[in-house]
Amino acid sequence: MSKWTAIVAAFLVAAMSVSGVLAEEYLSGIEWAEPAVIDPGGPDKAPSDAVVLFDGKDLSAWEGGEKWTVADGAITAGPGTLRSKDQFGDCQVHIEWAAASEVKGDGQGRSNSGVFLMGTYEVQVLDSYENKTYFDGQCGAIYKQHPPLVNACRKPGEWQSYDIIWTCPRFDGEGKLVGPAFITVLHNGVVIQNHFQLEGDTPFNRPPSYKPHPDKGPITLQYHGNPVRFRNIWVREVKEVEHKRVSEPQIVKH
Ligand code: MG
Known about the structure:
The protein is mainly beta. It is built from 1 helix and 19 strands. It has 2 domains: 3-32 and 244-253, no CATH class; 51-237, Jelly Rolls (Sandwich).
């Protein structure tokens, strides 16, 4: 092959490749099941694969709420801890809440509540609109571990949302931690916790620590003496798409 023939041949191969006539494709070698088809819902409608914990009607999906009340499509916190009957592991939680319209108290005393994953790990609920407190205890904090990245609070009385993506901790057969918990939280659509790795539970009076617990646990809502309201609560189990490796990764030519 002359020099010029080689140049022309290389040019043609390149041109065919760019035009898609001769292409290389990467194949992972993993066979994926088809992702489930769901209806994603809308502002006031849960996704079709969600467990609806409160749709404005009653507390039938909960226990411990004898002194919590329902009116005008919303729950108002009362004495005792409200605990979902269903239990969840890795999950996505949507919950809307509103601080009391009538501003009372300050710091931790103003519309304090909390959304607890597995009944143990608290995302703080607090009226942090023009209300200072310690930063790892303000609204959207992973209580006593990590402040929110920004303060995205709306005014008292206005509805706000949390969208929480929870990866639960893993324990082995002996109860030893083999995988920590991670949490991502959007507050009113804004990222305030970005895949934060938890150090353990979230108590007030001692350092966080992990204690073994079952693979699933309830969502619980805290009563801290304030009439915080909640509505539109749903949870989706988060699980990997089924798959298996059927071959090594390869590049095929078309
Ligand atoms: Mg709290």
